[in-house]
Specification:
Blueprint: H1 4-29, H2 48-63, E1 67-71, E2 75-80, E3 84-94, E4 112-114, E5 117-119, H3 127-142, E6 149-156, H4 164-172, E7 178-180, E8 194-201, E9 210-215, E10 221-222, E11 225-231, E12 243-249, E13 252-258, E14 262-263, H5 273-283, H6 289-303, E15 315-316, E16 320-321, E17 323-331, E18 337-345
Parallel strand pairs: 3-6, 3-7
Antiparallel strand pairs: 1-2, 2-6, 4-5, 8-18, 9-11, 9-17, 10-14, 11-13, 12-13, 15-16, 17-18
GO molecular function, one term: zinc ion binding
Protein name: Sapep family Mn(2+)-dependent dipeptidase
Enzyme class: hydrolase
Length: 356
C-alpha cells in the first residue's frame, strides 16, 4: 500500500492536472462517434466519427509519451514500454458511443459542467474513464517509473455495436497477460453477462393500419421516446398519460409516447416507450388482426423483462437474473413489422438456447 507521502503527492498531481484531464475528456466527447456504416470506407470501417475519435485518442496518448499506432481504423494501441516487452498488461477502453436519442437538455456532443458533473455523450461510457486511466498511467511515467511489463492501452471503436475491434486485435496480436477495462462500476467487475441480440419479424401484412413506424435508437437501449403513425380518426381516440396525439391529415394520426429510457442491462425502473405505443394501439383497436398478433408478441416481450413471457427466464448466483428488452421497432418498405430484442443472460443459459 502506498505511504501517506505518496498519496499526498498523487492528490496534488491530480489537482495540478485536473483541468488538462477535463479538456481531453471534452475533446473526445465533442466528437460524435456513433457507428456509421453508410459512410464507412478504407481506414474507417465503422465510419468517420469513430475514426476521428480514435485519432484524437491516439494523439492524446502520444502527447503523454506513449508509442501510439492506428491499426487500419479498427483499433488503436498506445504503449509505455516495460522492462519486458514480450508480455503486455492492457487497459482496454472504447471511444465509440451509442446514438444520443431524444430527451437531452443540451447538445450531447458539447460537453458542459453542471453541479459538479461533466455532461455529454461519452463522459461515462467510455471516453471519460479512458482519459482518466491514461492520466493515471501518465503519473507513474512522469515519476520515471518503468513498468516490469509493457503497459498497453487498447483504443476500441466498436464496443457498442459488435466488438469487431476486439476480434481484429485478437487476429493480429497476442492476447495480453492481463487486461482490464474502465467501463464498469467501481471497484471491480470480474465478469459480464452474455449478450444476445435478435429480431422478431412478422409475416406479410396486407391489411395493416400502421402507416409508418421507426421507434428506438439502438437495440441495447430502452427508448424514452417513440412514435408511430396509424390510420385512424383522431376524434375517436382517448387521451392517455404519456401519449400525445397529432392529426397528420388524410385520416392518419401520429401517436407519440414519452416513457423513461435506460440501458438494456439495467431495465429496472424504466418505462419502454415502444411498449406504451403497443398498449395504446391494442387497447384502442388501431391495428388489423395480423398486426395484432405481432403486437401481442411485442407486449409479451416488453411487459416483462425477466424473459418469462417468451420462455427464457433464467438466473444464477454469480450474475443474477436474465433480462431481455425490446429496443427498436420498425415497419419495413415491404410492410413487415420488426422488433429487436437485447438480452443479458447468466451462466445457466446460453446464446444457442434463444434460437431453439
Amino acid at each position: 500500500m502506498a505511504d501517506s507521502k505518496t498519496l499526498e503527492h498523487i492528490d496534488q498531481w491530480v489537482e495540478d492536472n485536473w483541468e488538462d484531464v477535463v479538456k481531453d475528456i471534452e475533446k473526445l466527447v465533442n466528437i460524435p462517434s456513433q457507428e456509421d456504416l453508410d459512410h464507412a470506407g478504407e481506414g474507417m470501417p465503422y465510419g468517420p466519427g469513430p475514426l476521428k475519435a480514435l485519432e484524437a485518442g491516439l494523439e492524446m496518448c502520444e502527447r503523454m509519451g506513449m508509442k501510439a499506432a492506428n491499426h487500419e481504423g479498427y483499433v488503436g494501441t498506445a504503449d509505455y514500454t516495460g522492462e519486458h516487452d514480450d508480455k503486455k498488461i492492457c487497459i482496454i477502453g472504447h471511444l465509440d458511443t451509442v446514438p444520443c436519442g431524444p430527451g437531452w437538455s443540451q447538445d450531447p456532443h458539447k460537453m458542459t459542467r453542471r453541479d459538479g458533473y461533466l455532461i455529454g455523450r461519452g463522459t461515462l461510457d467510455d471516453k471519460g474513464p479512458f482519459v482518466v486511466s491514461a492520466y493515471a498511467a501518465k503519473y507513474w511515467h512522469e515519476q520515471g517509473y518503468q513498468f516490469p511489463y509493457t503497459l498497453r492501452f487498447i483504443l476500441g471503436c466498436n464496443e457498442e455495436t459488435g466488438f469487431l475491434d476486439v476480434y481484429y486485435y485478437k487476429e493480429h496480436f497476442e492476447e495480453p497477460a492481463f487486461i482490464m477495462s474502465p467501463d464498469a462500476e467501481y471497484p471491480v467487475s470480474a465478469g459480464e453477462k452474455g449478450i444476445y441480440q435478435g429480431v422478431f419479424t412478422s409475416g406479410p401484412i396486407s391489411d395493416g393500419k400502421i402507416v409508418s413506424w421507426n421507434a428506438g435508437e439502438a437495440p441495447n437501449a430502452i427508448p424514452s421516446d417513440a412514435f408511430v403513425v396509424v390510420n385512424a380518426d383522431i376524434s375517436k381516440l382517448p387521451t392517455c398519460q404519456g401519449i400525445i396525439l397529432t392529426d397528420e391529415g388524410n385520416g392518419n394520426v401520429r401517436i407519440d409516447a414519452k416513457g423513461k429510457g435506460g440501458h438494456a442491462a439495467k431495465p429496472e425502473g424504466t418505462k419502454n416507450a415502444i411498449g406504451m405505443l403497443v398498449d395504446y394501439m391494442l387497447d384502442n383497436d388501431l391495428v388489423s388482426e395480423s398486426e395484432r398478433q405481432f403486437l401481442n408478441l411485442q407486449k409479451t416481450l416488453i411487459d416483462d423483462y425477466s424473459g418469462e413471457g417468451v420462455g427464457v427466464k433464467a438466473e444464477d448466483d454469480l450474475f443474477g437474473p436474465l433480462t431481455i428488452i425490446g429496443g427498436t421497432a420498425w415497419k419495413g418498405d415491404d410492410g413487415i413489422l420488426h422488433q429487436s430484442c437485447d438480452s443479458r443472460y447468466p451462466t445457466t443459459f446460453s446464446c444457442e438456447e434463444f434460437e431453439i
